[in-house]
Amino acid sequence: MTIDVFWRIPTHGEPSSLRNKLHHRGDWSQQHGDHVVHKGLSGGHDDGFTNLDYIAEVARAAEISGFQGGLIPSFPMTDEPWAISSFLARETSTFRFMIAFQPGFLNPVVAARMTASLQRATGGRALYNVITGGGGPAQLWWGDVAPHDDRYARTTEFLDILRGVWKGGEFSYQGKFYQVENAALPVQLLGQDFPEIYFSGSSDAALASASKHADYYLSWLEPFDQLRDKFDRVKERTAALGRKIKCAVRVDIIARRTEEEAWREVRRGFENLDGAARERYKRFAEQAGDSVGASRQRGNAPKELNDYRDFIIHPNVWSGLSLLRGGQTQGIVGSYEQVAERLDDLVRLGADAFILASTPHLEEAYRVGEEVLPLVRGHDSTATLRAVG
Amino acid sequence: MSAQFFWLLPTAGDGRYADAQQRIRGERTTDDAYFLPGVTDPRDRNFNYFDYLHQVARAVELAHFDGIEIRNDPEGEESWIVAGYVSRASRNLTVLTEFDASRGSAVYAAKNAVSFQRFTGGRFAWKVTVQPNAAARRRQGDFVEEEGLYPRIDEFVTVARNVITTTGYDFNGRFFQVLQGGFQGPLSGQKVPPVYFSGSDEAALKLSARLADVHVFNALPLEDVRLLAGRLEQYAAQAGRQVDFGLRIDVLARESEEEAVFDARRYAEQSGQGTQLQHAGLWAGLTTSTTGADATLVGSYEQVIAQLAAYATAGVNHFSLGAVPSLEEAYRVGENVLPGLRHLINSANQRAA
């Protein structure tokens, strides 16, 4: 069994490096904490291109450099992955679209038809990153009033219906959140591969839902021992239901020819932090939705910002990434060999797949695909290393 | 605004000339050889219906239509996926996407619509439909009673509009809730997709009067359109609004009336439809399951041009035309009907001005 490696699609624009605070690409720019729309690049005039055109570049780079596809995240301020996937279906060849979405926002019968159509449009290249967490006021922004644990129960029902309809024939269902009577997919839409499901969520309610439906249990990087425990737990719970589940790690990496260069990249970004970023860090450390995954990440962070080395929590693991850009806190930093070794460590503690990312995503897709992926052994401990270069 | 001409993209299959059977064009559905053994078939299973839909969309643009209407057919491909798939290949077409308000969260739909606007340079429009049949609704997981259908559309459009145009938006309705909603950053400032509704009953007209940008009449005879348009105009005036009128109609246009009638009769026979020549070339019942119009205008190019132009005098300025097979007919209508029709309508408008 080989491991699957995905890339991440930067839907929220991006800077040219981690030490640069200005987002130049697509139509995003970040200035003084406010998002400003840039029209094109030539004198501020609208050149007709949008962030989708940059995203298309990254998707092409990912497939050319050896990734399975990419996670397309969904945030309040970013373009939606269903839209991105359908627009780019014809512009990519092997790239698999990992669509992040919250099941509560879609009617499951419509979602089944959308998915089957997308499978037909892409030749079976769609898969899901089912997200349910978040919570607090953010969830009401989306128009969703269900409380945390109920949202997972709803996710379970949603996927029950999706699988039921997918099989063909007429399907009926009586749930707490959804009812369906004699639902069926059009006959020409039947027989497509059911999308693989990457499932995120760290609470007990999440694990219960994941055990039933997920193909991959997806976690951010956490301290390695914690992660091993978490993976063991989810595998046990799933085995108790007579199913098998694989595990996946979503992690940012900073890989350079030498370890020194990699840390220099981190140090420069850290030293470049301004007052606003420090203030954001303080807020981040205090902020709370009801996402358990997010608080697990926060729990590992130092309280003060003094030296970037204070955030090194494990060889080649730095927990200050969210200082430099939004998102998860822990990332792998090191030489190409070291990063590959840490990925192999993660494989040994239970990972079967990765979603990697690095800024800027276009150039780094090539770097990581060319320099790091050829060094990863995966499950094959007898594999001999390929020479880098 | 000058008249707009859209072409119907059939999402559940298309047909052929002189053959009324519905087919998933371009797609091999069995392993049986399609050609005789003596002839190489190079296709294998490399193509499916999406390749064909993509080509129709290109044809619509090359044949100088203004837009493409993507039908929401429960027996076909999902309309938003098709819309995204064909949009990237088009430069100027308005992409009018039909869907049912039961598809889910209004905020999520609006957010997807904003992405469509960003990716197309503001060419996305939507047509919100209702499924009048209760059993069909339940098949879609929709258990809303009939009395709730229009109120739900009302809330859907209200919420979608507001999260696109404002921030800090609160809404607490029967079907949708939002707290501090609204899109920011690059997602802000996008054009609200023009809203198209359809329907001939009073409730539909009143809903359109308050919320629609375009109200589409489904292949009704000219006199009926005049009547309903008059009523809608009145309701809209009461609401202090203006609503454009649309017509969704199929056309069977040939070089001569004789050819058109011959093809129409054959189609009716093959599909087992009892047709009725309703009025001035409008054949009720001559309809295809793929395009979904209630009636078809049958006649020579000149006759069809004259008939459509007559609708324009009733105030219709948005035409959604369809015909089978969609690819060939997009070119035929684009080349033989649209130029004369545009000319006729524009000169009538100039005389009126």
UniProtKB/TrEMBL annotation, chain A:
UniProt-listed Gene3D superfamilies: Luciferase-like domain
Domain Luciferase-like: 48-352
InterPro entries assigned to the protein according to its UniProt record, in alphabetical order: Luciferase-like_dom, Luciferase-like_sf, SsuD_RutA_monooxygenase
GO molecular function annotation: alkanesulfonate monooxygenase activity
Any one Gene Ontology BP term: alkanesulfonate catabolic process
Domain of life of the organism encoding this protein: Bacteria
Keyword Ligase: no
UniProt KW keywords: Flavoprotein, FMN, Monooxygenase, Oxidoreductase
Protein name (record): Alkanesulfonate monooxygenase
Organism for this UniProt entry: Methylobacillus rhizosphaerae
From TrEMBL, chain B:
Swiss-Prot/TrEMBL GO biological process terms: alkanesulfonate catabolic process
Boundaries of every Luciferase-like domain copy: 36-318
Keyword Flavoprotein on entry: yes
UniProt keywords, alphabetically: Flavoprotein, FMN, Monooxygenase, Oxidoreductase
Keyword flag Acetylation: no
One family name in Pfam for this protein: Bac_luciferase
Molecular function terms from GO: alkanesulfonate monooxygenase activity
Top-rank lineage group of the source organism: Bacteria
Protein name, as recorded: Alkanesulfonate monooxygenase
